[in-house]
Design goal:
This protein is an alpha/beta fold. The chain is 45% helix and 11% strand. It is built from 10 helices and 6 strands, in the order βαααααβαβαβαβαβα. Strands 3-2-1-4-5-6 form a 6-stranded parallel beta sheet. Helix 8 links the parallel strand 4 and strand 5. Helix 1 crosses helix 2 and helix 1 crosses helix 4.
């Protein structure tokens, strides 16, 4: 029955790691400390953007201007420090088992993340040994335009030497889903956060599942 695909492209936060509650709390707290408002739920809506883009959106809305490079670096550094005060994010339930299934099928696994959190990037090999290779990763350091621009996923296709029709994206965030959709890749949304699932479908998801465990459980039956 399957599979025609050659690669599975994974977002990281909220897909591989259950780290979004910590990210949303860190964003909320750091903005509050600067007299700015970014709710925890809104942080989920911005998930996938680069830190600079998220900061600029808040600055434009609240202060009517772009943040300076110095302000961006200061706030993002403070946000990263806050994030790292939380316990280490656990593997998302079902992620490791799903990756083992995918590897057994001989498919390429790649990470495409808007994150620049070195602490998480460094933990990929520890938590998912042998599953990912740095040369097949796309992070905030690689792209000019973050999600929802398709650039991160287009870059992943180029790095992997694959066509859009040969890949599947696994995302949990509206902006990530939009980026995968715009890149012309079949995009599976796993709703691991507090958002209404319709938001993910409206962003272009081809398939919506309630969790990574659900994706793992149904993987063999997907016609991809």
């Amino acid at each position: 029955m399957k599979k025609k695909i050659k690669a599975v492209l994974f977002d990281m936060d909220g897909v591989l790691f259950n780290s979004m509650p910590y990210h949303s709390e860190a964003w909320h707290q750091v903005m509050k400390s600067h007299g700015l408002n970014l709710s925890r739920e809104e942080a989920y809506m911005h998930e996938g953007r680069t830190g600079a883009a998220t900061i600029n959106i808040v600055f434009q809305r609240e202060l009517g201007r772009e943040a300076s490079q110095e302000e961006i670096e200061k706030i993002y550094k403070e946000k990263s420090i806050l994030f790292n005060t939380h316990p280490e994010a656990e593997r998302m339930p079902g992620a490791w088992e799903l990756l083992k299934k995918i590897k057994r099928e001989g498919l390429i696994t790649m990470v495409v993340t808007g994150s620049g959190q070195l602490s998480l990037l460094d933990r990929l090999e520890h938590n998912f040994p042998g599953m990912f290779h740095k040369e097949l990763m796309v992070t905030a350091f690689d792209v000019k335009y973050g999600k929802p621009d398709p650039e991160p996923y287009l870059m992943a296709l180029k790095k992997g030497g694959i066509k859009a029709s040969e890949a599947v994206v696994v995302e949990n965030a509206p902006l990530g889903v939009e980026a995968g959709h715009k890149a012309g890749i079949f995009t599976i949304a796993v709703n691991t956060g507090p958002l209404d699932g319709q938001v993910l479908l409206d962003s272009g998801a081809n398939l919506l599942l309630p969790s990574m465990q659900a994706l793992c459980d149904t993987w063999e039956n997907l016609d991809l």
